[in-house]
Structure formats: C-alpha cells, structure tokens
Write a structure and sequence with these properties.
The strands form 2 sheets. A 9-stranded mixed β-sheet has the order 5-4-6-7-3-8-9-10-11, with helices on both faces. A two-stranded antiparallel sheet has the order 1-2. It is globular, with a radius of gyration of 21 Å. The protein is of the alpha/beta class. Helix 6 packs parallel to helix 8. The protein contains 9 helices and 11 strands. The chain has a domain at 43-209: 3-Layer(aba) Sandwich (Rossmann fold), CATH 3.40.50.
C-alpha cells in the first residue's frame, strides 16, 4: 500500500482554518435601532422583512432609503404613489432609483390596465426583467454604498412559474448583495407563504426582521423582533414601535 495517512482520511482533520473576516456595519437609517445594534447590520446582508399586512411596516423601508443610494423594486404600486408616501414623512427622495415592476407587469405600453395574473409566459418574462435589472445594479454599484429594497417579495413568490426559477432569482439577489456589500431588504407579507418555501428562504437570508401587531382591549401595539443576524448575535428581545415622523422605537426596551 502507498504511504497514505488513513487517520487523515477517516479521522478528525489536523488543522481547522480560522476565519479572520469581520464584516463592516452599515446603518439602517433608524438611529435608535442602529445604536442598539451597535452600529447597524453587517454589510452584504440579505434581510427577510416579514410584516403583518396591517402594520404599516413599509415605513421602515422608506426610512431605510435615507442612508444611501437605494434601488427600490416596486411590485404592488406605481413608483409615483410610493414616492408620495415617502415624501409625506419629509424624507429625502433624491437617492432613490425605482425599478418599476408594477407597471411592466400590470400596464400596457399605452398605460391601460391588463390582467396578467397566472399567465406563466408573462410571469417568466417579469423574472427576466428583474434579472436584467439586477445585472445593471451589479454593473453600476461596484465600490458604491447602496441598498436594494424589494417591495414586495410576496409578488414573486406568488408567480406561476417553476419553483426553480424563483430559487434562481433569490440566488441572484443573494450573490448581487454579497458582491457589492449592499443591504438588501426583502419585504414580505406575514402568514401568506408556504411554510416549507418560507423556511428555505429564512435559511438563505442573513438577517430576519419580524413585525407583528398585538391587539389589546383598548389599543394596538406594533412590535419588532430581530431573531437572526449572521455575523452578530441575534436579539431575543421584542420591542414596541410607533409611526410618527418615521419609525419611533420604544427606548425603554433593549433590542440587541
């Protein structure tokens, strides 16, 4: 027999390389949140933002745009209506670049509304449209500080396409995020997706935000939890917030 060290094949490795990579932190744009996160979220994080549809949690997305140039992929409303809502909070909109999936999917070139829901051919085309735009973001953003916001991911999860195509899209989003060290927020409606598919997505994402409503006898409380942050310790705490001039987090509770 040759002089092969059988112990090195079947036994424990004699050397375990240690990673020295420490990601930089990026502010979210919500000061109280960033302070409690000790500076923000790790650069290159893909964030799954799961929210109760009644919660007005999209205001988080609006405030995230205040930190840096943001590519805002909108699927449920026209950009002009989202822009109007962002401006209503006196937020600066000069750094927002909209990618208008909504109009591309629901409107004809002449502006007439069309019903494409469930059309497999059109659904495949819209995925190709987004993939082309992701490549453009990648080409334009090397060395820049950017956010990517997908509002909403639920739109893509509901398309009538092969599941492999959705997986491909998610992998492209993930690889783009990592390559340019962006923060990418995938905004999704809570309790609307297949559990197995959502669990697979939760496993892929680096960070998980969850927004819930707690309905009491005389008032409603909005709550935020961040159970997962790759590169940092996740928080076991749940904190209350309200919407005033943006997101206002209850400072009497710890987040991280």
């Amino acid at each position: 027999m040759s002089n092969i060290d059988i112990a090195n094949i079947f036994g424990k490795p004699t050397y375990a390389p240690q990673s020295t990579y420490l990601p930089s932190l990026k502010a979210t744009g919500i000061d109280t949140l960033d302070r409690n996160l000790m500076g923000g979220l790790p650069a290159g994080s893909m964030i799954y933002f799961s929210a109760d549809a009644h919660s007005m949690a999209e205001v988080f997305l609006y405030q995230f745009t205040q930190t840096r140039k943001t590519y805002y992929i909108t699927t449920k409303r026209r950009p002009k209506y989202i822009l109007r809502d962002i401006e209503s909070y006196n937020f600066n909109t000069s750094q927002i670049n909209f990618i208008d999936v909504y109009s591309h999917y629901y409107l004809t070139p002449t502006g007439e509304m069309v019903d494409n829901v469930g059309n497999e051919y059109v659904d495949t085309q819209i995925l190709e449209f987004v993939e082309i735009n992701l490549q453009t973001i990648l080409d334009e953003s090397i060395g820049q500080d950017i956010n990517i916001i997908i509002d909403t991911l639920s739109f893509f999860m509901d398309l009538n396409v092969n599941p492999g195509q959705i997986k491909k899209l998610l992998n492209l989003i993930y690889e783009t995020t990592k390559t340019i060290d962006a923060l990418t927020f995938l905004y999704a409606m809570k309790d609307t997706h297949d559990t197995a598919k959502e669990n697979d997505l939760l496993n892929l994402c680096d960070v998980v935000f969850e927004v819930d409503l707690e309905k009491g006898a005389d008032k409603i409380a909005s709550k935020l939890s961040i159970p997962k942050i790759r590169g940092k310790v996740g928080s076991p705490d749940v904190v209350k917030f309200k919407i005033g001039e943006g997101i206002m987090i209850d400072t009497s509770q710890d987040i991280a």
